[in-house]
């Protein structure tokens, strides 16, 4: 099964305060690192970057596989839907452009799981004590961490399933923050693959320093 990658990169970096996808981490931009990881992954046929023209142009053109651009949408889920309109492959991997540390061998493991189960995502098991607070940030109750996971990307699906899921999301006018939430609406279980190495989402300035340190 061939797999296309959609790399969503049309956000506005509000929490960072400047274009985080252009930030350099050890000589390469955050977005270029994300694109390079998919270009180097066996099984990925084409990479679709959802981004404005200038951000796309900054990536350059020296890539070993086809690289396409699509306009972004208002919310992340709209950007993913836009990218999906270009997908012809049987599988599609959706990845945040803001996760530059993902490794080709990890993406490949996730593709294998998606081939087997129809839907798979990288994720990280919760390892700390979890509390629910009141509106004034006073701890009110404990939440069991058993079977709790943080969702990461890539999130990889049979393309027909993801299309059906987003059609359902649109029909019900739902807001979803990832594709796993979208496919939940059509009752599809998603295989969770524990990330073997840090795959942080660059969100605030300290994340750039952390990513640099992790690449030492
Ligand atoms: N309308 C949007 C919103 C987000 N994204 C992308 O989705 C990924 C995850 O989003 P996030 O890390 O929240 O990025 P931003 O939306 O840019 O950040 P912020 O919420 O701080 O503005 C990023 O690669 C971002 O570029 C997108 O393609 N289109
Ligand atoms: C898709 C995601 O990275 C999974 O953790 C996350 O939901 C996207 O983050 P956002 O800040 O809500 O766009």
From TrEMBL:
Superkingdom per UniProt: Bacteria
EC number(s) from the headed UniProt entry: 2.7.7.60
GO molecular function: 2-C-methyl-D-erythritol 4-phosphate cytidylyltransferase activity
Site (Positions MEP for the nucleophilic attack): 145, 201
Any Pfam family the entry gives: IspD
Keywords carried by this UniProt record: Isoprene biosynthesis, Nucleotidyltransferase, Transferase
SUPFAM superfamilies in the record: Nucleotide-diphospho-sugar transferases
Enzyme class: transferase
Site (Transition state stabilizer): 15, 20
Pathway: Isoprenoid biosynthesis; isopentenyl diphosphate biosynthesis via DXP pathway; isopentenyl diphosphate from 1-deoxy-D-xylulose 5-phosphate: step 2/6
CDD domains: CDP-ME_synthetase
Reaction catalyzed: 2-C-methyl-D-erythritol 4-phosphate + CTP + H(+) = 4-CDP-2-C-methyl-D-erythritol + diphosphate
Record flagged with keyword Phosphoprotein: no
HAMAP family: IspD (MF_00108)
Family: Belongs to the IspD/TarI cytidylyltransferase family. IspD subfamily.
Role according to the record: Catalyzes the formation of 4-diphosphocytidyl-2-C-methyl-D-erythritol from CTP and 2-C-methyl-D-erythritol 4-phosphate (MEP).
Protein name from the UniProt record: 2-C-methyl-D-erythritol 4-phosphate cytidylyltransferase
Source organism: Luteolibacter rhizosphaerae
């Amino acid at each position: 099964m061939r797999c296309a990658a959609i790399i969503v990169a049309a956000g506005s970096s509000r929490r960072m305060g400047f274009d985080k996808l252009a930030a350099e981490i050890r000589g390469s931009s955050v977005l270029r690192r994300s694109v390079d990881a998919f270009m180097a992954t066996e099984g990925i046929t084409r990479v679709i970057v959802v981004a404005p023209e200038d951000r796309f142009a900054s990536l350059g053109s020296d890539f070993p596989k086809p690289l396409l651009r699509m306009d972004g949408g208002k919310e992340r889920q709209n950007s993913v839907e836009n990218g999906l309109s270009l997908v012809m492959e049987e599988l599609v991997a959706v990845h945040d452009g803001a996760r530059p540390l993902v490794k080709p061998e990890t993406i490949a493991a996730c593709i294998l799981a998606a081939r087997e189960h129809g839907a798979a995502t990288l994720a990280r098991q919760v390892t700390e004590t979890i509390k629910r607070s009141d509106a004034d940030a006073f701890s009110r109750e404990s939440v069991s961490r058993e079977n709790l996971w943080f969702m990461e990307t890539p999130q990889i699906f049979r393309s027909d399933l993801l299309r059906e899921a987003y059609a359902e999301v649109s029909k019900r006018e739902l807001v979803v923050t990832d594709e796993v939430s979208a496919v939940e609406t059509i009752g599809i279980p998603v295989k969770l693959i524990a990330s073997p190495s840090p795959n942080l989402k660059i969100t605030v300035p300290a994340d750039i320093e952390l990513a640099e340190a992790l690449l030492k």
